[in-house]
Amino acid sequence: MDRIAKRFFGDWGMMSRLSIVEESTPKKIRMANLAIVGSKTVNGVAFIHSELLKKSLFKDFYKLRPQKFFNMTNGVTPRRWIVACNPELSDFLTDATGDSEWILDMSLLKSYKALSDDN
């Protein structure tokens, strides 16, 4: 906190928001703050989440160390999720389309939207 006090001299609000300890009664540990302070990097996993972290939730930490925040999408896509987690649906879609090309290009399934109400 000494370095923060020097950098943001007189900005007690900033110091309070960056503190690991919430100065209430009883005192509480801010686990998210502890995680940010103790981590080399902070990843929002998806672009929208990374932006929320930087612009809203942890904007003071971002102001302090912007190089610590970055975005790297975790690579989970709906098509890969369906294949891994719902093999029955995956098999159904492959049978319905006649091949497994939908796994590489989900836009191929758009033509089947009209059948979604077909019982």
Short description:
This protein is mainly alpha-helical. 48% of the residues lie in helices and 7% in strands. It has helices spanning 2-7, 12-18, 31-38, 47-57, 59-64, 78-85, 87-97; strands at residues 21-22, 28-29, 42-43, 69-70.
Task: Provide a descriptive summary of the structure in words.
With 119 residues, this protein is mainly alpha-helical. The mean pLDDT is 89. The strands form 2 sheets. The protein has a two-stranded antiparallel ribbon. The protein contains 7 helices and 4 strands, in the order H-H-E-E-H-E-H-H-E-H-H. The N and C termini lie far apart (64 Å). It is 48% helix and 7% strand. It has helices at residues 2-7, 12-18, 31-38, 47-57, 59-64, 78-85, 87-97; strands at 21-22, 28-29, 42-43, 69-70.
Shape verdict? elongated
Give, in spatial order, the strands making up the sheet with the most strands.
Answer: 1-2
Largest sheet: 2 strands, antiparallel
Q: What is the CA–CA distance across the termini?
A: 64 Å
Gyration radius over CA: 23 Å
Task: Pick out the low-confidence regions.
Answer: none
Q: Which whole number gives the mean pLDDT?
A: 89
Helicity, as a percent range: 40-55%
String of helices and strands: HHEEHEHHEHH
Total of helices:
7
Beta percentage is 5-15%
**Alpha-beta content class:** mainly alpha
Strand segment count: 4
Features:
48% helix; mainly alpha; 4 strands; 7 helices; two-stranded antiparallel sheet; 119 residues; single chain
Describe how the helices and strands are arranged.
Blueprint: H1 2-7, H2 12-18, E1 21-22, E2 28-29, H3 31-38, E3 42-43, H4 47-57, H5 59-64, E4 69-70, H6 78-85, H7 87-97
Parallel strand pairs: 3-4
Antiparallel strand pairs: 1-2
Helix pairs in contact: 6-7
